[in-house]
Design goal:
Elements lengths: L1 E11 L3 H10 L1 H8 L4 E8 L7 E6 L7 E10 L4 E9 L6 E12 L5 E11 L7 H24 L6
Antiparallel strand pairs: 1-7, 2-3, 3-4, 4-5, 5-6, 6-7
Length: 160
């Protein structure tokens, strides 16, 4: 079985607790509001938002994918860390079995944070990613961070 991993870090001028709440804990409510052009809704299929919760992301019409299901594997609200697995959906294609993400939000010295993300792509085949595919994925993540960053800066009393 092949596993390909990618790591990335993004610096944001937002407190790690606020960013964690917005990007992780309340993403099922916030993302459809902020990126309705990409996400119709995020349904909680099973669970209460904590470890073991299964969510289904339903993408908007015109997006390359229809849906993805993810499971929250670990959730540390005190240290702002989360691990989750996308285990079903057309975004996995024919080669991928799952994608595991590990996210950590670490305070920086300026009152903002560094978002560290590790992505692991699992397959029962050998998989190879082109540089442009890697850059595309990183750009999508940065775009999402930017949308949430703008929202939190514009609404300083949310997710406090």
């Amino acid at each position: 079985m092949g596993v390909v991993s990618f790591a990335q870090e993004n610096e944001l001028p937002i407190d790690p607790g606020r960013l964690f709440k917005a990007l992780i804990v309340d993403s099922h409510n916030l993302f459809p509001k902020l990126v309705s052009h990409a996400i119709n809704n995020i349904e909680i299929i099973e669970g209460d938002g904590d470890v073991g919760t299964i969510k289904q992301i339903n993408f908007a019409q015109g997006i390359h994918y229809k849906h993805a299901k993810l499971r929250i594997d670990e959730l540390d609200k005190k240290n702002y860390e989360c691990k989750y697995t996308i285990f079903e959906g057309d975004m996995l294609g024919e080669k991928l079995k799952s994608i595991k993400y590990e996210m950590k939000f670490v305070a920086d010295e300026y009152g903002g944070c560094i978002c560290k993300m590790l992505s692991e792509y699992y397959s029962d085949q050998e998989i190879e990613f082109k540089d442009e595919d890697i850059e595309f994925g990183k750009e999508r993540a940065i775009e999402m961070y930017k949308v949430v960053e703008d929202y939190l800066l514009t609404n300083p009393h949310t997710y406090v």
